[in-house]
Amino acid sequence: MERRRFISVVAEVLDSLPETFRRRIHNVAVLVEDLPPSQLQRTRRRPRYMVLGVFRGVPLTRKSVFDFSSGPDYIVLYQKNIEAVCSGDDEIRHQIRQTVLHELGHYFGMSEAQLEAV
Fold first, then answer.
1. What is the mean pLDDT of residues 50-74?
2. Does domain 3-117 fall into CATH 3.30.160.670?
3. What 3-state class would DSSP assign to 35?
4. What pLDDT shows up at residue 2?
5. What is the SS3 assignment for 109?
6. Rounded distance, CA 61 to CA 86, Å?
7. pTM assigned to the model
8. CA distance 15 to 96
9. Integer Cα distance of 62 and 79 in angstroms
10. Fewer Cβ atoms within 10 Å of its own Cβ: the N or the C terminal residue of the chain?
11. Per DSSP, what are the bridge partners of residue 31?
12. Res. 66: pLDDT tops 80
């Protein structure tokens, strides 16, 4: 999928989130990159699992009004990895949604164990 189309799907996914959910998201950027830095270094072996996205920042549950701002929190989606686990545009759209929701869960302070239980 072309990058422009991928970004368009990401925007559609974000716009489709329930309003009550979107209102609680503040100062979070969503970025798209090809691959995570660890995969950019060429290796012969394929990773055991592919990182599809990552949240970088301070979860809401750990933020304080007394903290100094360290810039916006952000989510990075790794386009090539998402495409690698999907067989078509519909699956890519679904995986983008799942990955965005997963990473937003981290933004809201959920652990991996909590996210897997959902």
1. 81
2. no
3. coil
4. 95
5. coil
6. 33
7. 0.84
8. 13
9. 29
10. C
11. 76
12. no
Please determine, for residue 117, whether its predicted confidence score (pLDDT) is greater than 90.
Answer: no
67: helix, coil or strand? coil
Let me know: does 102 contact 115? Beta carbons within 8 Å: yes
For 27, the 3-state DSSP assignment is coil
What pLDDT band is residue 45 in, cutting at 50, 70 and 90? low
Q: By the 8 A CB rule, do 10 and 32 touch?
A: yes
Whats the size of the chain, residue-wise?
Answer: 118
The residue type found at 46 is R
Q: Where are the domains of the chain?
A: 3-117
Give yes or no for a contact between 52 and 99, defined as CB atoms under 8 angstroms apart: yes
Q: One-letter amino acid identity for 26?
A: H
What's CA 16's distance to the chain center, in Å?
A: 15
Q: Which residue is listed with tokens 């920042």?
A: 57
Inter-axis angle of helices 89-107 and 3-16, to 10 degrees? 60
